[in-house]
User: What shape does this take?
Amino acid sequence: MKILVINPNTSESVSTLIQAEAQRSASPGTEIEVATAPFGVAYIETRFEALVGAYASACVAAERHGTYDGVVIAAFGDPGLHGIKELIDVPVVGLTESSLMTAATLGQRFSIIAISPRIKAWYRETVERAHLASRLASIRALEEPLRDIGSVQQDYAARLKALCNEVVDDDGADVIIIAGAPLAGLAREIRNELPVPVVDGVSSAITQLEGLIRLAPKKATRGSFAQPPVKPNQGLPEPLERLLSSGKTG
Amino acid sequence: MKILVINPNTSESVSTLIQAEAQRSASPGTEIEVATAPFGVAYIETRFEALVGAYASACVAAERHGTYDGVVIAAFGDPGLHGIKELIDVPVVGLTESSLMTAATLGQRFSIIAISPRIKAWYRETVERAHLASRLASIRALEEPLRDIGSVQQDYAARLKALCNEVVDDDGADVIIIAGAPLAGLAREIRNELPVPVVDGVSSAITQLEGLIRLAPKKATRGSFAQPPVKPNQGLPEPLERLLSSGKTG
Amino acid sequence: MKILVINPNTSESVSTLIQAEAQRSASPGTEIEVATAPFGVAYIETRFEALVGAYASACVAAERHGTYDGVVIAAFGDPGLHGIKELIDVPVVGLTESSLMTAATLGQRFSIIAISPRIKAWYRETVERAHLASRLASIRALEEPLRDIGSVQQDYAARLKALCNEVVDDDGADVIIIAGAPLAGLAREIRNELPVPVVDGVSSAITQLEGLIRLAPKKATRGSFAQPPVKPNQGLPEPLERLLSSGKTG
Amino acid sequence: MKILVINPNTSESVSTLIQAEAQRSASPGTEIEVATAPFGVAYIETRFEALVGAYASACVAAERHGTYDGVVIAAFGDPGLHGIKELIDVPVVGLTESSLMTAATLGQRFSIIAISPRIKAWYRETVERAHLASRLASIRALEEPLRDIGSVQQDYAARLKALCNEVVDDDGADVIIIAGAPLAGLAREIRNELPVPVVDGVSSAITQLEGLIRLAPKKATRGSFAQPPVKPNQGLPEPLERLLSSGKTG
Amino acid sequence: MKILVINPNTSESVSTLIQAEAQRSASPGTEIEVATAPFGVAYIETRFEALVGAYASACVAAERHGTYDGVVIAAFGDPGLHGIKELIDVPVVGLTESSLMTAATLGQRFSIIAISPRIKAWYRETVERAHLASRLASIRALEEPLRDIGSVQQDYAARLKALCNEVVDDDGADVIIIAGAPLAGLAREIRNELPVPVVDGVSSAITQLEGLIRLAPKKATRGSFAQPPVKPNQGLPEPLERLLSSGKTG
Amino acid sequence: MKILVINPNTSESVSTLIQAEAQRSASPGTEIEVATAPFGVAYIETRFEALVGAYASACVAAERHGTYDGVVIAAFGDPGLHGIKELIDVPVVGLTESSLMTAATLGQRFSIIAISPRIKAWYRETVERAHLASRLASIRALEEPLRDIGSVQQDYAARLKALCNEVVDDDGADVIIIAGAPLAGLAREIRNELPVPVVDGVSSAITQLEGLIRLAPKKATRGSFAQPPVKPNQGLPEPLERLLSSGKTG
Assistant: This one.
């Protein structure tokens, strides 16, 4: 089984974190390939940045189409996730979606720990898109500007752990989601020091995607997740153009 | 890895269906044990019957505690699921919860196909408890009284397939959930004849539970899924009494 | 008119509190009988404990069936309430449901005062089941471990009153619900010292049940509150078995 | 105990229907006085008509203040209900609010049977104001223009019964609310011919109001149901002016 | 184009504030006429006061019918807005509705700044009626009793600005709505000192109403915003009576 | 005042329709410039196509930045709208958002008429993003494959009018939104033949944008609609890169 993990951020340092946690989470026999967005911003925090990351991720997914059994969109906030699900004929998951699903089976209410105040609106709207906002106990975030996106975990370890305790004690969270690719792997480090289960986006996504690939769901040929109807298009990268013209929709 | 699958219905014929689909879905190396509820009704369709099945399932989970790495409550409607999650220190999943999570990653709106009109209210309330009612396109059910709970799939194959098509065409479902232990395995049979992905409770539950066991979430010691506080109790079966007195809550 | 009040907790001291407030609230001519759960825990705070209390309450309701005109499930959180409504052919009410309905006619937003932090999740979910969470201003609870479940009112009088004022001033509650059988009767004691109406579960339940009995609603013979369909069952206490087999459903 | 029942419609024939059902529902010792709105329209179906009925009802409630222990606003849609609750220091209930509360204790989902298509929007918004729209299975209404508002029950008996059956069979209602003062008493006539409990606004209101009066809730002195703050006013009927100036708010 | 602005409060000083901001906001060629409620209270803060203001506003709108191209109900809380929309055959807008629509196009979440704690419940319910409560970040209000309704802006300038900053920093508001006719024009004064867009009810209403008048929507002849059906009425002011009898509904 | 109207579809024929209706709707003195997406698909119907249109629209908005006072994203579904609002320092509106706001001031519930079944999911999710799904009466669509995107209005005139009547009579819509750039201007043609107000996306957007530009809201410097924080980016078109680096966020 081969999984393509797309980092919609352009930071190679974040890709390295993602790669490491993906590898640790994968079953024996699962091959992981991480691809970094060829264009966009270093780390996505806003709707506009996500809009760019969505298109970049779609381009990557199209370009490598045929070489993988499933795709992870590896930014919390899931840029382009639903659109890419339409386009691609194998399972596609995102870090937020996977984290929410894992958290939802471990408890009733969950909180999200994030790396910046600005990122909170985008995360909340992603939870709303999943219709799970009423199970969201809170989103808490680091307040200071980040020194280095590649070393957030080390630089703010104590503060991140404090936030985790606050969401349990003050906000009533049953489960903690540590959000964002730059925090990939942190949950694994600190989970034994925390009073409730801790969910990591990358390991949730890899685990759930492996499960989905084994379940082998059929690609929709009707309904809103079938491939977009074949129609005139222009100015698109060739791999996108080819997928859109493949006409698999029934 | 060993998984205990509890059938909250008392029908052995349903246990057989569950066992077969669980076995087909399990990874190599996963051991499946199916236990049938020692008391209750042949197949649960109502809130009252679920109340009995919840207690029966809790008794079974407590009795075999220590012999498994995870538990599946194998009736759609998930009798007792959240309570049993408090009690038990390894992951516990239910057919509805697992199906909803699988469906939610395969599309935005889903419909449920059920075996009787009476069962619809209980299913809807289970979806509401997951706060996913606004993503539920519809619940459609067989209308006739069932001939035999063990042969529903054979007896109503054509009607069930027709219902599946109706929820896609008329209700806007992106994903179909074929609900209820008596229908375990049907999705596997007919999925290639249907225009959207089809979710089966048993295979979703086994797959997700395997994933959760691999993720190894910590048992909560605070929050609402920690073990119930130690306090006086009476009249309980010894295994329940012992678990409640084990005092693991921090 | 005879009302059976079932205490799903096993504490006789709590039954005594319930009995006293029920008696004070009942109209002349109403006979009150309080039955304590024969098995379960001293006081229910969690979903698991409620699951046990639900089954215990159902057993009591079935055992005494034919001797009463209505039933009160006398634990806030209403263990088993909806299931027992299916089973029984006379009105059945619960402390939470009755309190919510009384509160909803006295104001638009209400808060709940509870005896322990752990109990808050179970209460919130009970309010959600009534679809009234958007009118819930807050749930506030005593923070300390209780000295004695039978003397909570005396031991924490000042703190409970302070919580009542906080929900009005800080949370915007129009009405205060003092929740939980161990606090039965407290509302009556302190209501003149508080700035908004105060609702007590036991007196609300008795009053509303008397009203329902006078309105004499027909037992449903269709829909989701009809008796469960007659079908094979096993291992149930004889009174439950007999009710399930009575076949009154049309 | 004396109850003032205000008919916000100007039709005396409707007042007669209300009076009859109120009398049938009242406990021995309850005195019922019905007052017809001195201005407004014959029967309220729209938001504008309700706006007029609200002011008319407030004028009546103020004028007779001091002569009653509780008030019923006797039009489904509850014109002015929440405002009048602020003004008056004894319990005030409405037909919709009471019906919803009764229905909510008899089942989980309910439907409303109404006398005209136009009235449906106003009813739905009243249910929304109670935050219970997600428990509303449907509103179904007579389609034809009414011959005579005082004889709707006789003129459309068969059609009304048919609508009742439709909401159970097609919409999944557990409970039927027969709405509107012109249908007062119909539920009592036909309830034995219907498969689920049937709720009547007038009898629900009388019964619940009697209960509330016995519970003797304190008039709020803080929060949003305290009396409006004393401030300059002008051009108001003297009884309104006097109540507004009484300054009871703490 | 001529716009009638109805001040549902009886304070002429508030009408003066409204008039000034309406004039500043109007396009060249728009004529503004402000009418003060002939009866009611000095400034509306509660549901009861709004009930009176609704009727007073309806009377004014009816009396001047034929002399205007559109109406503004110029109290935040929009007393009588939906009813008056039924009655009148040209566009009618309210301060809250207009502010919400403007805010909803400037950001995703908004907060409301209000002049008194008591007014918050009425405002929240107005937002709920628009079904936008889930986009409401918070309502914050001046806490002290007002010295003079005509000089609130001057008397509490610093505190109002502080509240504006709090809703951005603490509540996550993207947009600030400065609510209530007594604050008309304040947004214009302080908007350059605040970090997010600030919405004023009067200027939003005038601007949107001008746009609606230009779009020239047809008056509904079916559905719930058609004129109320012609039917017997009594005791109404002659202009209301005439409009209700004009029988334009199809 | 100069308005840039971006057609996220690549069809020039649709741009022509948009241009015509925009011109008809604009005030004297408003200059309209329509720009067609340089890449993407002929007409957007799905999430994936919207993802591409979002990026294309952002590129156009950035490229022409400095030449306009406001932007219309002229596809129903508003591709990229919220992201582009972050990026751009003048008001940006979309067809759906504008239509919803106009509809919301003309009635309480609205329906959407659309050009294809496939497009319905994308529209519903756009309404959900505005949190207005509970006011959406229905979405109805043409069922047949379109002959020519530029002549939909002519080809399906009768069917579109029939759909408009159905949403009023069967779904309870107070207002009809005729959705999608290919239908631009149709509302103007048929509004006098329909029983409720009809909303057109293009004219709503132009009218509201003119109003917003006159209100002159400040660009946010804090909160989630401030410009994205300055940070490393790569591979972006120069105009996007320049805007992202302009560092206006406070």
